[in-house]
Amino acid sequence: MADERRRNRLDQPQPRRRSLLTLPNPDSDAFGRFSERIARFLGTGRFLVWMTLIVAVWIGWNFLAPRALRFDQYPFIFLTLALSLQASYAAPLILLAQNRQDDRDKVNMEQDRARGERNVADTEYLTREVAALRQGLGEVATRDFLRSELQALLKELEQRNPGGLGGADDPPA
User: Fold this and answer.
1) What is the pLDDT of residue 61?
2) Is 80 exceeded by the pLDDT of residue 171?
3) CA–CA distance, 59 with 53 (Å, rounded to integer)
4) Is residue 7 part of a domain?
5) Which ranges form a coiled coil (predicted)?
6) By the 8 A CB rule, do 97 and 31 touch?
7) Is 19 a domain residue?
8) Single pTM value for the model
């Protein structure tokens, strides 16, 4: 009775049913990191050297060893199978690593674009501020302007009063 009541509750999800046909669902991020490590290794000189050594030893063993110890005769069918199997796993792993790199490149490109837009907006703001300061400075009296105005006033005063500026010793006019 309690099981039936628990099963009929609509506010709780039903447990997932496992079937024999359900494939395992590995952590995609962990699998992606694993595939990137393998793809990075497959693209190195170390991998090429090791692969060349293994193939050379394989062929040398199957040519030079006594017939009873040879495990892969001349057309090297087992070697071909092993290399085909390695290639059939390497290609999808490399593609998966490339897809992950493409996703990272997209994110980086979007961040670069946003950063560029912010830089343009900041530059436009600073340009407007500099223009406003220039305009404001055009309306402000500068030191040279004040000096020239004072010199002009001094000349005007000297022209009005040729005897001097009128100090304490001078008699009043």
Assistant:
1) 94
2) no
3) 10
4) no
5) none
6) no
7) no
8) 0.53
**Per-residue pLDDT band at 1 (split at 50, 70, 90):** low
**Structure tokens, 50:** 């090791």
Q: State how many domains the chain has.
A: 1
pLDDT attached to residue 150: 92
- Find tokens 């030079």 and name the residue: 64
Mean pLDDT of 2-17: 68
Q: Which amino acid appears at position 95 of this protein?
A: L
CA atoms within 13 A on the CB side of 166: 9
Give the Cβ contact number of residue 47 at 10 Å. 14
Domain with 47 in it: 28-157
Residue 105 placed within a domain:
yes
Classify residue 55: in a domain, yes or no.
yes
Above 60 in pLDDT, residue 9? yes
- Calculate the average pLDDT of the chain: 85
Written in H, E and C, the secondary structure of 18-53 is CCCCCCCCCCHHHHHHHHHHHHHHHCCHHHHHHHHH
Compute the distance between CA of residue 48 and CA of residue 21 in angstroms, rounded to an integer.
Answer: 39
- The number of residues making up the chain comes to 173
Q: Residue 127 corresponds to which tokens in the numbers above?
A: 């340009």
